[in-house]
C-alpha cells in the first residue's frame, strides 16, 4: 500500500513525474526524509519509498533522477524586492569582495568606466550611468565617493550610484543639477542632503532625498524598462532556488507591471507584493488577495519606519558606538516615518484586516512599532493578520518578548553577520551588542518561528549564503559574531521554507514536501544537513522546479550578477508616477520637488 497521508484515492493515480535517486528533505517533522515523491497536475500525490512511489508509474510518467543530489521544497522569500532586484540589469557592479572587485574609490571609478565603455547603447537610450552596491564600510577610504570623483568618470552623462543597503546614493554634478539640488536645497522629511565644507552638496543623498533623485534619473527607463526589471529579477530569484518571491515595498504601478509581465509568461515564480501603506491604501484594500493572478498577488501593506543600520540611519534608542563620518555627539539615527504616521498605518491595517510588514531596524524604530501595534490591538483586537517585523537588526531582548506577546512574526537578516558583522562590532553597536544582531537564538529560545531574508538587491538573493550566515554567523574577517545566536541547519532551512510560507498564509500549500502541496522544489549539489556547516555557502542550486516544471538549471544560470538586458524605452509619465508615489504621503512638499515634477509633465 502506498505510504501517503491522504486517502486511498491517491494510490490509484498515475503520476506525471516521480522524483527519486537522491536525498529528499521534506521539511516535514512527521516525515523528515523520503526516497521518492510522486506528482500529478503540479500537486504532490505521494511521498515514501522508491518502491511505493513507483506504484504511481504509468506509461507517460517521467522519472526525474536526482542522481545523488538533494531535493528540498522551493525556497520562499521572507523579504526582498523582486522587481527592483532587476535594477542590477542596468547597473555597474560596485559590490565589494567576494561579490565584486570594489575595495576603494579608484576601483569604483574603474568599474563605472568599464560599464560605460561596454554599455553605450543603454546610455544613449536612457541618458544615465547607474552603479549598484558601493559600501563605505568595505572601502579603504571608509567613506563614499563624492560628486567630483563621479565627475571624473563623466561630466556629460548623469551618474547615480546606489549604496548596497539601497538607502543612500551618490550623484555626480550633472545629476544634482538635473534634480535642482544646490547649496540652498532643503531635504525632504526623512532624508538628508550632505554638504561639503564650502556649503556645496557633495553628492551624497540619504533616504527620502536619495529616493527622489533616483526616481527622477530612472525616468527614461520607462514601462518597458520596469518590465525588464521584473523579468530579470524573478529569473535571478529562480536561479537561487526561490519559487516564491516578494516585492517588499511596492506600488500600484509596480504591481500592475508585474501582472502584465506575468500575463505574458515572463515571471517564472510566484511573487507576493506589499505596496507602501503611506501611499497606496486604496489600491491595497481593493487588491489584497490570497489568490494569485498568473503568479502575482497583493499580500498586504508595507511600512518603513527607519533606514540602514550599517549606514547609521536606523533609529536607535542610544547613540551609535563609533559612527564613521561627520556625526554630532550622541547621534542615534532618525525615523523616516513619524510616530503619528506609524500609529495611523498600523491602526488602518488592523481595522481593515490587512497584513502589514514593517521595516524597523533600530531599537528606537522597534519601540515605535511595538507601541503602535499595542495601540491597534487595544482598539481593534489581536486579529490573525500575522503582522511581520522586517529586519529588526538591533533588537533588545525585551523587544523580542514584546513581539512574541503581540503575535508579530520576525523576518530577520542574518546575512548582516557576514556582510557587516565586523562593521557592527566596531562602529554601529559595539562588541557587546554586536553579538546580538539578527537574534535568531533569542527568537528560538522562545519557540517563535522566524524567516530569514536577503533583502535583494541589497545582497544577491543567494540562498546558500543566507543559510550559511544563519548557521555560522561568520563575518568577512572570519570572526563568529554571537555564537549563542546560531541555529542548526534544519532550523535555518525551516526559516527559508515552511516558516515564511506561514508568514505569507501559504503553509497549507507550500513550504514542505507533503501530499496535497504544490510541487515546488529546489535541487542542491549536496545535502546541507550532512556537510560541514563551514561549507554551506559552497553548495550550489542545480535546478529550481515550480509546479513540477523546471524553471532553472545551473548550466543556463546567471551567477556573477551581470544580467543581460535589452535597451529601454523612454516613458516620462512612468517617472512622474513614481515621484508621486514617493511624495504623496508626505506632509511637507519641498521647494525642489515641483521642479522634478515639471520635467515629466
Structural account:
By secondary structure, the protein is of the alpha/beta class. The protein has 22 helices and 23 strands. Strand 22 and strand 23 (549-553) form a beta hairpin. Helix 7 (207-217) runs antiparallel to helix 21, helix 11 packs parallel to helix 12 and helix 12 (363-380) runs parallel beside helix 13.
Overall pLDDT: 89
Q: What's the alpha carbon Rg, rounded to whole Å? A: 24 Å
Strand content: 15-25%
Number of strands: 23
The backbone outline, from C-alpha atoms, is globular
Largest β-sheet summary: 8 strands, mixed
The helix content, as a percent range, equals: 25-40%
The low-pLDDT segments are: 1-11, 556-601
Number of helices: 22
Alpha-beta content class: alpha/beta
Assembly state (oligomeric):
single chain
Distance between the termini: 69 Å
Summarize the structure.
The protein is of the alpha/beta class and 601 residues long.
Key terms:
alpha/beta; disordered C terminus; globular; 19% strand; 601 residues; single chain
Secondary structure elements and pairings:
Blueprint: E1 17-25, E2 33-40, E3 43-48, H1 50-54, E4 62-65, E5 70-73, E6 75-76, H2 82-85, E7 91-93, H3 105-118, H4 120-126, E8 129-134, H5 147-151, E9 159-163, E10 168-171, H6 173-178, E11 191-195, E12 201-206, H7 207-217, H8 222-239, E13 242-250, H9 252-263, E14 270-275, H10 281-287, E15 296-298, E16 301-304, H11 339-351, E17 356-360, H12 363-380, E18 388-391, H13 397-406, E19 409-412, H14 415-419, H15 421-428, H16 430-434, H17 440-445, E20 451-452, H18 463-472, H19 489-494, H20 498-503, E21 521-524, E22 541-546, E23 549-553, H21 572-583, H22 593-598
Helix pairs in contact: 7-21, 8-9, 11-12, 12-13
Amino acid at each position: 500500500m502506498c505510504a501517503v497521508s491522504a486517502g486511498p484515492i491517491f494510490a490509484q493515480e498515475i503520476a506525471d513525474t516521480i522524483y527519486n535517486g537522491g536525498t529528499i528533505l521534506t521539511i516535514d517533522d512527521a516525515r523528515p526524509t523520503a526516497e521518492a515523491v510522486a506528482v500529478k497536475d503540479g500537486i504532490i500525490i505521494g511521498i515514501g519509498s522508491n518502491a511505493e512511489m513507483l506504484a504511481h508509474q504509468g506509461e507517460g510518467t517521467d522519472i526525474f533522477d536526482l542522481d545523488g543530489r538533494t531535493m528540498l521544497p522551493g525556497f520562499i522569500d521572507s523579504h526582498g524586492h523582486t522587481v527592483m532586484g532587476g535594477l542590477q540589469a542596468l547597473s555597474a557592479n560596485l559590490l565589494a569582495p567576494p561579490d565584486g572587485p570594489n575595495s576603494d574609490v579608484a576601483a569604483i571609478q574603474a568599474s563605472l568606466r568599464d560599464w560605460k565603455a561596454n554599455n553605450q547603447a543603454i546610455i544613449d537610450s536612457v541618458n544615465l550611468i547607474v552603479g549598484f552596491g558601493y559600501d563605505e564600510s568595505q572601502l579603504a577610504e571608509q567613506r563614499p565617493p563624492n560628486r567630483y570623483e563621479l565627475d571624473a568618470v563623466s561630466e556629460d552623462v548623469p551618474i547615480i550610484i546606489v549604496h548596497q543597503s539601497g538607502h543612500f546614493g551618490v550623484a555626480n554634478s550633472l545629476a544634482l543639477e538635473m534634480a535642482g539640488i544646490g547649496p540652498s536645497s532643503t531635504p525632504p522629511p526623512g532624508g538628508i542632503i550632505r554638504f561639503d565644507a564650502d556649503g556645496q552638496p557633495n553628492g551624497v543623498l540619504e533616504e527620502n532625498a536619495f529616493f527622489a533623485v533616483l526616481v527622477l534619473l530612472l525616468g527614461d527607463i520607462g514601462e518597458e524598462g520596469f518590465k525588464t526589471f521584473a523579468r530579470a529579477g524573478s529569473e535571478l530569484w529562480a536561479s537561487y532556488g526561490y519559487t516564491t518571491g516578494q516585492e517588499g515595498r511596492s506600488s500600484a504601478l509596480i504591481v500592475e507591471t508585474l501582472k502584465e509581465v506575468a500575463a505574458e509568461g515572463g515571471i517564472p515564480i510566484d511573487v507576493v507584493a506589499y505596496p507602501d501603506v503611506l501611499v497606496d491604501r486604496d489600491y491595497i484594500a481593493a487588491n489584497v488577495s490570497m489568490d494569485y493572478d498568473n503568479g502575482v498577488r497583493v499580500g498586504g501593506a508595507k511600512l518603513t519606519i527607519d533606514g540602514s543600520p550599517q549606514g547609521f540611519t536606523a533609529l536607535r534608542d542610544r547613540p551609535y558606538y563609533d559612527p564613521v563620518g561627520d556625526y554630532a555627539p550622541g547621534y542615534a539615527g532618525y525615523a523616516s516615518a513619524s510616530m503619528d504616521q506609524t500609529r495611523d498605518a498600523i491602526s488602518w491595517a488592523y481595522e481593515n484586516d490587512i497584513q502589514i510588514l514593517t521595516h524597523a531596524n533600530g531599537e528606537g524604530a522597534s519601540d515605535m512599532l511595538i507601541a503602535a501595534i499595542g495601540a491597534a490591538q487595544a482598539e481593534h483586537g489581536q486579529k490573525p493578520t500575522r503582522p511581520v517585523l522586517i529586519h529588526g537588526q538591533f533588537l533588545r531582548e525585551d523587544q523580542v518578548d514584546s513581539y512574541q506577546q503581540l503575535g508579530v512574526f520576525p523576518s530577520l537578516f542574518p546575512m548582516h553577520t557576514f556582510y557587516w558583522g565586523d562593521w557592527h562590532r566596531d562602529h554601529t553597536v559595539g562588541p557587546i551588542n554586536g553579538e546580538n544582531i539578527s537574534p535568531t537564538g533569542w527568537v528560538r529560545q522562545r519557540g517563535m518561528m522566524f524567516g530569514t531574508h536577503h533583502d535583494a538587491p541589497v545582497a544577491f538573493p543567494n540562498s546558500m549564503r543566507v543559510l550559511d550566515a544563519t548557521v555560522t554567523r561568520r563575518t568577512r574577517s572570519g570572526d563568529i559574531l554571537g555564537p549563542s545566536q546560531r541555529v542548526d541547519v534544519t532550523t535555518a532551512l525551516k526559516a527559508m521554507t515552511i516558516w515564511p510560507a506561514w508568514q505569507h498564509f501559504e503553509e497549507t500549500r507550500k513550504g514542505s514536501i507533503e501530499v496535497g502541496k504544490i510541487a515546488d522544489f529546489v535541487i542542491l549539489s549536496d545535502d546541507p544537513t550532512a556537510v560541514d556547516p563551514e561549507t554551506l555557502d559552497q553548495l550550489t542550486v542545480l535546478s529550481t522546479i515550480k509546479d513540477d516544471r523546471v524553471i532553472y538549471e545551473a548550466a543556463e544560470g546567471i551567477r556573477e550578477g551581470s544580467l543581460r538586458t535589452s535597451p529601454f524605452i523612454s516613458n516620462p509619465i512612468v517617472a512622474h508616477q513614481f515621484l508621486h508615489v514617493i511624495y504623496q504621503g508626505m506632509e511637507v512638499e519641498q521647494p525642489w520637488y515641483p521642479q522634478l515634477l515639471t520635467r515629466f509633465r
